[in-house]
């Protein structure tokens, strides 16, 4: 244990920890994040939900089925809760907004390593962490640690291939980012990572802001099956393409075709 200013550091510099090792320390979320170099706060996130879609009847059917089946499915372990609550909800969001869904995804960043329950990758990155029963506070600690690990893993920008026609055009007109002779461009690192913790029927969002090294825990919690449509709408809104993205992508496609 190392003293830093007025407080003691529990996580040692230069040591690597699994997610479970950090959570076994049984510290408050704020203490864990401070050791990892992040600030913590609880505040409203005001996330927008896109609910009026062609898939609304399917989501309403899922919500009704959850309500009818719940008395017959004992929630005795995390696997049952995942099958009953998490998977149907995420697939409903996937139907509404296409994104990549990684299950038990390995992450290693900074001093942390382990597997996140779900990593959803679309317009934003969304980490989903599950815990049993009503352990929402402990669940958010798990989510916060996983978000930090992903943020640290993404800290180094990666090189993204350039379309051949765009590369030839860059040689004629000037350098692409990184110089005209490069085979790719530097892909910018996303400035935000979203999180979602589920403690059975109770769900709560989080936000990691990479520039400020701050994690916010949303003050609002969502309840299934009541808030199924709202949750699906928020996830789809975070991960699906915005109208600006669609216009930009179509413009790039036309630019390549005319090069």
Helix fraction bin: 25-40%
**Mean pLDDT over the residues:** 83
Structural class: alpha/beta
Q: In whole angstroms, how far apart are the ends?
A: 61 Å
Largest sheet: 8 strands, mixed
Topology as H/E string?
Answer: EEEHHEHHEEEHEHEEEEHH
Summed up, the domain count is: 1
Q: Compute the gyration radius: what is it?
A: 21 Å
**Total helix count?**
8
Proportion of residues in extended strands? 25-35%
Give the number of DSSP strands: 12
Anisotropy-based shape: globular
Residue ranges: pLDDT <50 for 5 or more in a row? 175-182
Supply the key terms.
eight-stranded mixed β-sheet; two-stranded antiparallel ribbon; 12 strands; 259 residues; alpha/beta
What does this 3D model show about the protein?
By secondary structure, the chain is of the alpha/beta class. The chain has one domain (2-154, 189-241, 248-258). Helices cover 39% and strands 28% of the residues. α3 (56-69) runs antiparallel to α4 (78-96) and α4 crosses α7 (228-239). The relative contact order is 0.18. Mean pLDDT is 83; it is low at 175-182.
Summarize the structure.
This protein has about 260 residues and is of the alpha/beta class. The protein has eight helices and twelve strands.
Q: What is the element layout, followed by pairings?
A:
Layout: E1 2-4, E2 7-9, E3 17-18, H1 19-24, H2 29-35, E4 39-42, H3 56-69, H4 78-96, E5 100-109, E6 112-121, E7 125-131, H5 136-153, E8 158-161, H6 164-173, E9 184-187, E10 192-199, E11 202-209, E12 214-223, H7 228-239, H8 243-258
Parallel strand pairs: 3-6, 4-12, 7-10
Antiparallel strand pairs: 1-2, 5-6, 6-7, 8-9, 10-11, 11-12
